[in-house]
Amino acid sequence: MTRHAQPQRQQETSGLAAIAVLGGLLALILSFFAHSFAVFLALVVIVLAVIALVRARGGRPGKREAIVGLVMAVLALFIGSLMSAEGQEGFQQAVQTAPPVDPNALPASVTVATVQSPDNLVTTAGRRLHVTMMQGQESSDPCRTGTDTAAASKLVTGQQVSIAAPDAAHTDTPTAVPAGFQPVVMTLADGRDYAETWRNMSAESYVATCLAAAETTTEAPAPTTTTEATSEPDVDDDVDRPYVPAPRTKARSGHSGHPCLPGERDGDGDGYCGE
Fold it and tell me: Which chain regions cross the lipid bilayer (predicted)?
């Protein structure tokens, strides 16, 4: 080995030892937070520190730094492994002891996506809700059914509403709740009770739409004018009038063939006409 190569090798050893020190310090710090990465970095630092120690034999510089880096890397490896094992054990324990999620548990608020009927709604998350104390018996009037659904859609479609489990004062019979629906009490975003607000709004819509249309169609038709045949004015037969005898016509003459004229012989052989 030449004299020029020896100082260069010493510099490389010192640099490698310095890297081992910095890497060991970083691994020790990360072992408290990023356990997996700290373990990996500690293994790399251990390899570098060992190489630096091998090169520093015979009194070459860098030996002390390599030892310091090696010690910190070993500590980081131990702490990181320990923390990682405890973390995994704690996670598994938490998963095992965590209470199971209740699919029937109600969130505090939901957003309504569709209205199947005024009391049966579907949220954007797919949850199906039955709002209690809504309408009781179904209406057979198609106009009433349409106005009821339109009023419900206007109130809640696309709106975020608050829901809660019904209490004793707000319950429906089990047969009124469709299969797969959860009974709830619903409050609108402005704080109003949905069931009460809907009842008022649907009643107004029914009166304005259905009853008004029914009154219009059932009104009596306007009287039509007909042209009566013009008849002759009545003649009062009881009015006294002078008697006018009907004209008498003599029988035709057998001689002239025309009505009997004065001075001619009449046809009955009793004399002349006019006698």
Answer: 12-30, 36-54, 66-85
